[in-house]
Amino acid sequence: MKFLSSQLSYFFASRRTRTNVKKLFKFILVLVIMYVAYSILFHYVALHEGQDHSWLTGFYWVLVTMSTLGFGDIVFTTDLGRGFSMLVLFSGVLFLLVMLPFTFIEFFYAPWMRAMNQAKAPKMLPEGTRNHVIITNLNVVTDALIKKLTSYKIEYAIMEPDLQKAVDLSDMDYNVVNCDPTDFDSYNNLCIETATMVVATGSDMENTNVAFTVREFNKDIKIVATSASSDSVDILQMAGASHVLRMGELLGRSLARRTLGGNARVHVIGHIDELVIGESTAQETPLIGKSLKESKIREATGATVIGIWERGKFIQPRPDTEITEKTVLVLAGTVDQLRSYDELVSIYHVSDKPVIIVGAGRVGRAAAKSLAERQIDYRIIDKNPDRIRDPEKYILGDAADHSVLEKAGLHEAHTALITTHDDDINIYLTIYCRQLSSNMQIISRATYEKNVNTMHRAGADFVMSYATMGANTIFNIMEGQDVLTLAEGLNIFNHTVNQKLAGKSLITSNIRQDTGCTVVAIKCKDDGMVVSPNPNRILELNQELILIGSSDGENDFSSQYENKN
To answer: Is 88 domain-assigned?
Structure first.
């Protein structure tokens, strides 16, 4: 009923539509008068031929004749009767079969369909909408962001200027508004004064227009804009963007952080406050063959193993978990604790061979820059001559060519980064590199989430998603909190203890059983950061939990424990 009322309101909102409906009623009135007049004349013609019929029969004959059904059960035999029958027949063909359908479609059906579409994709948000996120374009990043917003029960609206595309998005259960993000007047209808954030992910010029326009409406709103060119960053900031994200740069650096660097030292992949998260390979170290309990890592260094990677599969650590040649340890601790770990293993698995980077686009160049800052050598393979910048570092050729990979040092390299924007190519190259080098670490980029599992099956040790990384970054800006992506589908995030959890111990809270997430640290006012807290520790109100979990686990956690104060 609510949807029908919306349709009716949009249908009768247009003055032209109201005029067309009046014209349709006038046409129908003409048909009714014609129908009644023919029914009356039918009796006079019938009496002329000596026939006597009821009024209902007269209405029946006129309807049958005008609609060209012509059952033939009532016929006239005189010229007057046949002439009258022809008049009724031709009138029916003209008015019922020709003019009525076109009139109905033009004056009623087409406006009604437009009203249905406008009801599905309105041109404005309901009055009183607050704390919502406005998104100017739907792409892989904003689609992942929408999933995250939905899991946290945060309202959003996608701006789409094309009505049919807006309707299609609405049919796919997106919240969409049919308006142009570059139109100044659009923002009058989006409750921009009470919105939380605007996310502009179009072209650099469009994003500049959006940032400049939105800033005129709301001086304090967060505006996050993406930028394809480094030259556009300053312009977007001058236009009013609060945060400018270069997605290629972010992804490239994220991929480079996953590179273990040819030694067993801890390589930091991120931090949350004082808690530092790092990874270290166990390959060629004395840890191989020992269980976590036997390794005594925590006793010797103070650092805690919070997870284990085995060829792209994340495993929750247990005391009896065995460390193998393929094991990559995920460690958490303070800077000093991780340095203590380095002192134990830094002499193992040392290699000065370059990292192979496939693809010299924005992501590949950003990864190379990040590796150079860590003083890690690299070689970039690309078949586009225009991208070859340094002959010593860049190799012209197809990465699917064995000789090109050999020239880049495939058999000696400890890591390969596959960074092209085409997921099919990345899967192909992952399989190829894995077959040629079984012990090499392979880190691959994925544009679409659906291909992540395929890349893992193809042999990738880690997969970083363009969509997930971008969505998490934007969500962090909105919430002002840290969410660290360990790999595609696996995050470390924080949560403030509320009434739902306060007074319970970690073991009785059933966080791990209910959500699959694990509390790896607690930030307390008195004790500071407590890493790997005792399961019997009682949670206190407003303490900050640091958790590790899958994307689905994080969604389950937020639905059960967020916004419960």
So the answer is: yes
